[in-house]
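The records we work with from here on pair a chain with its fold. Taken together, the tokens spell out the fold as the letters spell out the chain. To see the layout at work, look at the sequence and tokens printed below.
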Amino acid sequence: MLLCKLRMKRKSPVPASERMFKLFVEFAPAAIAMFDREMRYIAVSQRFISDYQLINKDIIGHSHYEIFPEISEKWKAIHRSCMAGATEKAEKESIGKSTHGLKNQAKLAGSFCFQK
């Protein structure tokens, strides 16, 4: 019993600020996805899940390129550049995701910036 209590004390709970931040992202009215340095999802909004038809898929911890294998080398290069500290801008650009033989289009616009 004592060993079990010691193990429980060693595990630190997720800080309240991190939980609040993840809830903020999850319930934001925009399609938001946050990644770690290896482009694995760490937080996503419900709107992102809905817009990209990822309902009932647990994408947290999975690579963005695993979820969207059709991402071009151009975008992978932009992601690498941003991870190295660059800020990239893009006007609207169509990307497609095939789902059950249907191609769904989404427009991307905005800035991409990753903090070190």
In short: The helical segments are 2-10, 16-26, 46-51, 64-67, 73-83. The chain has five helices and four strands. Confidence is low (pLDDT under 50) at residues 1-10, 98-111.
